[in-house]
Amino acid sequence: MKKALALPLLLATFSAGLLPVAAAAENPASRYQLEKVVMLIRHGVRPQTDTASLEKATGKTWPEWGVPDGNLTGHGYAGMLAQGAYQLATWREHGLKLNSTGTCPDPEQVFLWAAPDQRTKATGVALLDGMFPGCGVAIHATSNKHDPLFDTVEMGIAKPDQQVISQQVLEKMGSAENAQHKYQQSVNELRHAVCANEAKSCAFLDKPWGVEINEKGKAKLTGPVSKGASIGETIRLQYSENLPLSQVAFGHASNAQQVSQLMALHAAKYDLVSNTLEYASHGGSVLMRQLLRAITPNKKGELNSPLVILVGHDSNISQIQTMLGFNWQLPVYPRNDIPPGGSLVMERYRDTQTGEQLVHVTFSARTLDQWRELTPLNNQNPLPVAEFIHSGCHSSPVGELCPMETFVKIGQQHLVADGADVSVFN
To answer: Residue 194 and which of 44, 256, 260, 381 are 20 to 30 A apart at CA?
Structure first.
């Protein structure tokens, strides 16, 4: 009886052993080869950019940080270093070929350009140290105070129609009274958290809502958002930096959800102004042209590298996000929020069966608690990711893929002439 069972059992065992091999051979994802990555990323954690202004507005002394205002912190550096290692490992899993000649990449394989601020340049160093430890891969940045790639509005290159901006902002806001009613609870919560108990404290919270545009076309909201946006961002940064909870919003934000609630006016700034199309398209066209140039096949130039990284600010990502019509909701954060290290990533895949080139676009960022605790990033604890979904694109085993021609048309649809002839990467 035992001999009669031996052959069927052996065949069953042999067949079972073949199953993983067959499944691997039929893995649909293997059809798509990742051949290029272009990333626009925000810098890591920093302190507020103007402590004196916050103290004057609120009547309180704000906690001190270990670095000057606006500079990348050691905590921020560590977070970006780990994120760089995680992101490169993820791309390699999808087939991105780097380091083909040894431990360190060839100079032409990686190109990183950073905005000319300490926090953006230091973030670039951290990313490359995490991706290629010990290699000393160079970062690039202009030696000037401003860079037309990231500072189009500040440099006066952008020429938006001020009336159109005002119209688009007011359409979103409805009216000053409507905005005041909508955000009154958020204003009350912020007042309770950060304002001194005196009459002059936080006077900006009582001023009427409105929009102002300066001579360079830079738009900003008046009223509660004028300082409330930067205060909300500072509270987020305090929590992300792992400052003692007694110092985060002066002890009024003990968890991620409470931090997010105090960011409502920061979210309003982006929703009502930064993400308006007239403002974003004029501010972002110089950058969008370079992103499209980078993701499409090139025969020469710095953007032909398999890995291209541009390190800028949340305002830059906001402009590209708006021009693409890309919206996201990451855990706990407000809608379309751009946390430190937030990454807008364009991946170019090649369909090995048809030869077609396709683009996969995502936005990812650490959660508030992942930042605070510097939680190791891995397959069990990944970066939260949102995908760009569009009617001209389609789902695949590697995510939502857009045909190259379709994606280029999406990226070009809101381009304006501002800065078309400006020189970049100098």
So the answer is: 44
419: region left, alpha or beta (phi > 0 left; psi from -120 to 50 alpha): left
Q: Length of the chain in residues, anyone?
A: 426
Question: What pLDDT sits at residue 26?
Answer: 55
CB-based burial label for 417 (10 Å; 0-12, 13-18, 19+): exposed
pLDDT tens profile 310-329:
999 999 999 999 999 999 99
Tell me how far CA of residue 316 lies from CA of 275, 280, 313, 364, 366, in angstroms. 11, 9, 5, 15, 18
Concatenated DSSP letters for 334-367? PTT---TT-EEEEEEEEETTT--EEEEEEEE---
CA-wise closest residue to 170 among 217, 223, 127, 209:
209
The pLDDT, as a whole number, for residue 410 is 98
pLDDT score for 13: 34
Query: How confident is the model at residue 100, as a pLDDT?
Result: 55
pTM of the entire predicted model: 0.92
Partners of 55 in beta bridges: none
Q: Which residues of 271-304 are buried (b: 16+ CB within 10 A; e: fewer)?
A: ebbbbbbbbbbbbbbbbbbbbbebbbeeeeebbb
What was the pLDDT predicted at 215?
78
**CB-CB contact of 115 with 313 (8 Å):** yes
pLDDT greater at residue 131 or residue 25: 131
Of the candidates 287, 263, 237, 295, the residue with the CA atom closest to the CA atom of residue 49: 237
Q: What is the pLDDT of residue 217?
A: 76
Assign residue 425 a region (left: φ > 0; alpha: ψ between -120 and 50; beta: otherwise).
Answer: left
Name the H helices within 132-243: 162-173, 176-194, 225-240
**12-21, 191-200, 219-228, range with the lowest pLDDT:** 12-21
Distance CA 178, CA 19 (A): 62
Question: What value does the mean pLDDT take over residues 11-34?
Answer: 55
How many C-beta atoms surround the C-beta of residue 25 within 10 A?
8
Beta strands in 118-277 (DSSP E): 210-213, 219-222
The most distant pair of C-alpha atoms in the chain lies apart, rounded to whole Å, by 95
* Residue 265 and residue 302 in contact, taking contact as beta carbons nearer than 8 Å: no
Q: Which amino acid is at 1?
A: M
Mean pLDDT of 73-84: 98
Q: Give, in order, the Cα–Cα distances in Å from 160 to each of 168, 278, 281, 319, 387.
A: 12, 6, 8, 13, 29
- Euclidean distance between CA atoms 176 and 65, whole angstroms: 36
Average pLDDT, the chain: 91
Radius of gyration of the chain (CA): 24
